[in-house]
Design goal:
This protein is of the alpha/beta class and 401 residues long. 41% of the residues lie in helices and 14% in strands. The strands form four sheets. It has a five-stranded parallel β-sheet, sandwiched between helices. The protein has a four-stranded parallel β-sheet with strand order 8-7-6-9. The relative contact order is 0.13. Bound molecules: FE3-S4 cluster.
């Protein structure tokens, strides 16, 4: 028995009158809605689909996508998370022919569905920018956290299939973070430390994520935060914690309407130091440096180019700048690409250090991203988290210190 209210049109889709993909999607959305007690489906302004890398999907995932692509067409603006490779220049990243062939089949299926092949975890930097209060259905955890907390849009953290279902129907079940009553902070985090470099934001996300767990933090004490800092913080806080929502007093929208929660957590210099100690392994030789987790903004690419100008990446080290293809095109026009490539760096467009098939290729990575460190450990790499300057130095010298 279906518990959620369905309109006539939704019932028609569920009965298969709009084809296989719409029916399958309605089945997924109704099952989710019933599990989480949603009363109805609500329209979404955009969808972001994760689960794009063949590395994670495998043949079973590819088959599932091909079935949906037979008659499925998305109804709203839908973008993709990073794939397992640079779609145009995968060879330079050391990707095998076999993997590339499969990854291209995955992309073909998404293209057939009418999805924009954006392959980025920062859709908000390339034109899929929701408005305050808008309901959306996004999957990538850092993007979900950014949308909820920095923009003030409303989304749950969708899985790949539920995001696709929302794209085919144009709706999502109204539960969780779509409801105002579930968007109330329940832990006060007072930050009493100065954040000096980008990686400090990842370390702060680590501290807060670990300390609040499943609670929604109301963060005070942060005086200033730019887009890149917030992007980095979002990625880290949800990776090491779990809720993709926070409020930051005076910085994120909607924070002013909430009371300070009673439970108070204080973050001091010592906590940040401990975060670095826990993330950083005892390793000196660095054979991989990756900047761009989440994907680099054009400002970050410009900074990489400035620091790499007239320098040379060590022959022992692979250096990636992970970003969206659109940001790379801007970098081409500004001359940043030439500087970075002349120094021996590579652009990794459409992909990233977590979803590319990197297991066994590198022993150690240096990055500005706390989230990047988390996933690199899953790829059996030793990790170093540091400032952009430290990471560039590691790339040039092939070692950390
Ligand atoms: Fe984006 Fe990949 Fe990092 S999806 S947030 S660059 S792990």
């Amino acid at each position: 028995m279906i518990l959620m209210y369905l309109t006539k049109e939704e019932e028609r889709m569920l009965d298969g009158e709009e084809g296989y993909a719409a029916k399958k999607s309605m089945e997924i959305l109704v099952a989710l809605g019933d599990i989480y007690g949603a009363e109805k489906l609500i329209s979404v302004g955009s969808v972001q689909v994760a689960g794009v890398s063949y590395h994670n999907l495998g043949d079973a995932g590819l088959e599932f996508l091909n079935e949906l692509a037979r008659d499925g067409k998305v109804k709203v603006l839908t973008t993709l998370n990073p794939a397992g490779m640079d779609l145009e220049d995968w060879k330079k990243l050391g990707i095998s022919e076999e993997f590339a062939e499969k990854q291209n089949l995955v992309i073909d299926a998404f293209r057939k569905m009418g999805i924009i092949i954006s392959c980025t975890c920062t859709p908000y930097l390339i034109g899929s920018l929701p408005t305050y209060g808008e309901h959306i259905a996004w999957s990538e955890s850092s993007a979900v956290t950014f949308a909820n907390s920095v923009i003030g849009a409303k989304t749950n953290r969708e899985g790949g299939p539920s995001a696709l279902a929302a794209a085919f129907v144009g709706e999502t079940p109204s539960y969780g973070l779509h409801l105002e009553e579930n968007r109330v902070p329940d832990a006060h985090v007072d930050v009493r430390t100065n954040l000096k470099k980008l990686s400090d934001w990842g370390a702060l996300g680590y501290c807060i994520g670990k300390k609040v767990g499943n609670k929604i933090p109301y963060i005070t004490g942060v005086k200033d935060a730019g887009l890149d800092e917030l992007k980095s913080f979002c990625a880290s806080v949800v990776t090491y914690g779990s809720k993709p929502l926070f409020f930051m007093k005076g910085i994120t929208p909607g924070s002013e309407k909430h009371q300070l929660p009673k439970e108070k957590i204080i973050i001091k210099d010592r906590d940040i130091k401990e975060a670095y100690e826990s993330i950083n392994d005892d390793v000196d030789a660095i054979d991989f440096v990756c900047i761009g987790c989440p994907h680099c903004s054009i400002k970050e690419v410009a900074e990489v180019a400035r620091l790499l100008k007239n320098r040379r990446v060590s022959s022992k080290t692979e250096f990636w700048v992970a970003t969206s293809r659109l940001v790379k095109q801007l970098a081409d026009k500004r001359g940043y690409t030439e500087i970075i490539e002349n120094a021996g760096g590579k652009f990794a467009c459409d992909t990233c250090m977590a979803v590319a098939p990197l297991k066994g290729r590198f022993r150690s990575v240096a990055t500005t991203s706390a989230k990047g460190c988390y996933y690199s450990r899953h790829n059996d790499m030793k990790t170093k988290l540091g400032s952009l300057e430290e990471c560039i130095e590691a790339a040039v010298r092939g070692k950390w210190s």
